[in-house]
Structure formats: structure tokens, C-alpha cells
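User: what does the whole thing look like in 3D?
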Amino acid sequence: MTATITAFERSPDRGKGLARDMRVRWALEEVGQPYEVRLLSFAAMKQPGHRALQPFGQIPTYEEGDLSLFESGAIVLHIAERHAGLLPGDANARARAISWMFAALTTLEPPIFERDMVRILDREKPWYEERLSALDETIRKRLSDLARHLGAAAWLDGAFSAGDLLMVTVLRRLQGSDLLEERPTLAAYVARAEARPAYRRAFAAQLADFTASSAG
Amino acid sequence: MTATITAFERSPDRGKGLARDMRVRWALEEVGQPYEVRLLSFAAMKQPGHRALQPFGQIPTYEEGDLSLFESGAIVLHIAERHAGLLPGDANARARAISWMFAALTTLEPPIFERDMVRILDREKPWYEERLSALDETIRKRLSDLARHLGAAAWLDGAFSAGDLLMVTVLRRLQGSDLLEERPTLAAYVARAEARPAYRRAFAAQLADFTASSAG
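Assistant: Here's the predicted 3D structure for the full assembly of 432 residues, as C-alpha cells:
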């Protein structure tokens, strides 16, 4: 049964693939599963119809037969558990890959996402410079720890996993900033992931949806 | 094999049970598994020995034979997958409970944790009130969505699950604030969880560790 996911009708990043549906598209491409996309306006996301699937009025959601899920991390985990390619077979290695999934979304993403929000929404606020540099300091610590862990390895723990997939989607928000570019280990890690055929297909698909809806 | 977890030697919350080891203790109590605790000073957490287990120098970690995990969400999920009591048997209901685990840690926790940090670190800043009220507005939206979803139900999706466990540990940071107390639905939800015998045992254990290390 083909799954249906939801995504922004007009991606706020103008096709850069930073919205969280990108994670789900990429995961589905890695495991070779087709999917359909339902694009939603910001107004539609807040309506009761969508809130029945996503209580917080966000994207993405995932529908497959009777099953309806929300939260990109949970959706990626669901896909990874049901199809080969995103989690190791060994039980301990699998649990460690899931540690990296949570690390990406709860230890790395909050300050990195917040930095984007501050740069967009708080530029005129009295706390802007101070807040941005405090966030950058937090992010630098986290990135140093991550780069030290990664070292000369290609991926976070053995083969490419759902942990790498989520981590790279988080780090991509820093592309073009010194925070990422001053760490060749991490910049190369992101580039290595972006070179995967599944990533390229997912990126092209979200860009095509953005381009089509912008032209409409 | 008895698992060993790590926790703060001196809990910054002075025994309120807000540190993230509380989630793991509670999960272990719910499934009836014994555990040992290794208490760490802030200095020890940043040393290479601990960083080999936890690349970001945080607590908790979880060691069980050859397996070593980090990230409280991943540890709770690992416990929930291996022992009955924290995830439904039905595959779809199980995937939905995992959606709630991610919602707790990625949608609710970031602004709620940040609010605590602002209240501790930024109280003397000229922009303190403005920043706090911006955060409170974000948190209120999330809590309204959560309360609307919960409605008259006891738990987020059927029986008590690891999703409720994580959500309650996040909401507990708001106890005593209007944000939580003005929403009887959510205040009652937290109280219902805190009345569980497993919660009480976990709370007592972390408090005993705090009291013992404070007396030392």
C-alpha cells in the first residue's frame, strides 16, 4: 500500500529541502518505497481535518492504510523498522543507531532550528546579537563533540543509518555558515550524504513540488 | 543482567526529579527491571571516559552487558521494546505511541526547557520579560493543542505508554507556573501519572541519591 505524506504547499525555504517532509521522502527513497504527497497551505494545516492527523498543526504526517503517524522522527523510525536499509540487523547496533536519531532531533536540532528562527524573526529585537552569539556558542560545542566522535569515519556508527539521515537533515540548516564550513569533517559528512542517490531523488521531488506549487 | 545508568552527582534541581535520568528510572520501574546508578560530577561528565559513552558529555547513559546507549528518549524506547508495559502490542498503536514520544521531546520540550534556562540565566537582562513572554506564547499554543487532543481521556492514545511517560516528564518542568495550572486537563494528566507506583518509586530513588550525595 502506497503511503501518503503531507508537505508545505509553499515551502518557506523556497526549495532548499529544509522542511521536515524531506526526511521522510529521503527515508522512503533509501528503502525503495513509493509515496504520494498531499500539499497543504498554512491555513489548511491549522484546520480540524489536519489536526486530527497532527494535533499541533504541523507537517509531515504519514498515512498508510489504517495507520496515521506524525513527527518526522517517528515516521522515519517506522519506515526504518519495516524496510531494510536504514537500521543495522544486529540488535545492539540498531539500538545505537536509534540513539543517534534522538541525538539529532533533541541535542542538535533545537539550538540549530532556534538559530534560524532568531535570524528570521528576532532581527529587530533588543536581544538579537546577544541571543545569536549564545546560540552559536551552544551549537559550536555540539558540533565539536560531533566532529570528535565522527573522526575519520564515514558515518556515525558503522554503516549509513536513520541516525545519519536525521543528523544530516539537521546539519543542512547550517550550510553556508561558518559554524559548519569551519569544520571540514562535518561539511564532508553532509556532502557525502547528499551524494547518495536516494537523497538526490528526494531533494528533486521536493523541489519539483515547490516549483509546481509556486507556478500555480 | 542489571543495567547501569548515569545521573548527576548533585542534581541542579535539588531533588525535584527534572533531570533526564528520571525518565529512565521511571521506565525501568514501570517494566519491573532493577538497575544500578553511577553518579557523576559535572567535571567527570566532560572527561574522555564518559564521552566514550556519551559524545556530548551528558547524562543519562545506559549500559547493559555489551550494549551502551545514550539519549533518554532512545533509552526509554529500548526498555519499552524489550519489556512489556510501555508500548501497546498492536503494531499501529505502537507506532502511534512512538509518535508521542517524539512529540514530547521535539515539539514540547525545546521551548519548555528553554524557558527554564531563560529564567535561570537571563533574569538580569534588559529584555528578560519580553523574551519570557515570547516563549510563554509558544508554549501556550503547544499546551492548548495538547489539551485539545487529550480531552477527557486519561492518556494520549489508549493505555499509558512511553509517550505519556516522556510527555509528563516534560510537563513537570511547568509545575507551579500558570502555563500548566491554568489548564486543569493537563494538570490532572500530570497528577495522574505521578500517582503511578512506578513513578513514585523512581522519584524516591532519585531523591535518595540526591540527598545522599548532598550530605557527603
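In plain terms: The interface with chain A takes residues 51, 55-58, 66-75, 77-78, 92, 95-96, 98-99, 101-103, 105-107, 109-110, 113-114, 125-127, 130-131, 142, 145-146, 148-149 of chain B (CB under 8 Å). Chain B has ten helices and four strands.
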